[in-house]
Structures are given as structure tokens and as C-alpha cells.
Design brief:
With about 150 residues, the chain is an alpha+beta fold. The protein contains three helices and seven strands; from the N terminus they run H-E-E-H-E-E-H-E-E-E. Strand 5 and strand 6 form a beta hairpin. Helix 1 runs parallel beside helix 2 (about 30-45) and helix 2 (about 30-45) packs antiparallel against helix 3 (about 105-115).
């Protein structure tokens, strides 16, 4: 995904950084890529020029899960909006919406994809950064979306 987003990040004057260890999860590769693409696209859109977006991978062998953090500096998302960010069509401030910014479905789609894979997603935001935290099982449980192994 970094290869795909490199040009867009460069145009916006932001850097992409990947840290952590390689891990594989069981699931639909295209859907997981879409979920992460939605987060990276948003991060690039809201990161100030000259700043860095960081994607951190942390494997937790105790819980047999992978944590994926997509973190970017930028304007704080007010706490009152955080519980609603994953709802369809939710906007923190519809008066600031510009043409071509999307339909407000990206985070709702991301949440659906992550949950279909037996995972969860959360968001936090403070003066330093906005952070999306995804947790995915390394060994998928029965009933979760499965088709092929997806390297993260």
C-alpha cells in the first residue's frame, strides 16, 4: 500500500513510515487492503505538509493478535465526535466539506471489514496525533471472513 500511496503522499508533502514486525492474518486480502487504504487516504488528507504518517505493526503472541496503528499528526478530532466516526455519512463538520471529499462511508466500511475478520477498530485523538488502532486475530476464528492469507 505504501507504494500505491507514495505519489499522493509526496504531492501533499507528507512522509509515510512503517515500523514493527511482519505478520500474516487470515482473511480477504482485497478487503483488508481496502480498510487500510481508507485509513491511509484519510491520514494523507489530514496530515500537515512536512509531517509523517506512521503505521505500526505489533504482534501480540499472548493474545494471538496483530495490532495495526495508523497515526498522523494534524488537527485534533474533538472527543464528542470520536464515538460517531465509524457511522455511515457522519461528518465532524459538514460545513467544511469540500467537493470531492467522499461520501462519509470510508470509516464505516473500514469498521465493517475489520469486524468481518473477527477484529476491532478504535480511534483516539489529541494535540500530538490521531491514532486508529486495529486489532486482528492472527489465527482467524470460525465464522470470520476467510479466503487467503494476507500479509500485513
Amino acid at each position: 500500500l505504501f507504494d500505491y500511496f507514495e505519489v499522493l503522499a509526496e504531492e501533499r508533502g507528507v512522509n509515510l513510515e512503517l515500523t514493527g514486525e511482519h505478520a500474516s492474518v487470515t482473511g480477504d486480502r482485497l478487503m483488508l487492503r481496502r480498510a487500510l487504504s481508507n485509513l491511509l487516504s484519510n491520514a494523507i488528507r489530514y496530515t500537515p505538509h512536512g509531517k509523517t504518517i506512521t503505521v505500526r505493526l505489533i504482534k501480540n503472541t499472548a493474545t494471538d493478535s496483530l495490532k495495526i496503528y495508523v497515526q498522523n499528526p494534524g488537527a485534533v478530532i474533538p472527543e464528542k465526535h470520536l464515538p460517531y466516526l465509524f457511522e455511515r455519512f457522519y461528518r465532524t463538520d459538514s460545513s467544511r466539506q469540500r467537493a470531492g471529499e467522499g461520501a462519509g462511508l470510508g470509516l464505516a466500511i473500514t469498521k465493517s471489514i475489520i469486524e468481518a475478520h473477527g477484529g476491532s477498530i478504535a480511534v483516539s485523538s489529541n494535540e500530538e496525533m490521531t491514532s486508529f488502532e486495529i486489532s486482528l486475530p492472527i489465527n482467524a476464528a470460525p465464522g470470520t471472513a476467510q479466503s487467503n492469507g494476507s500479509d500485513i
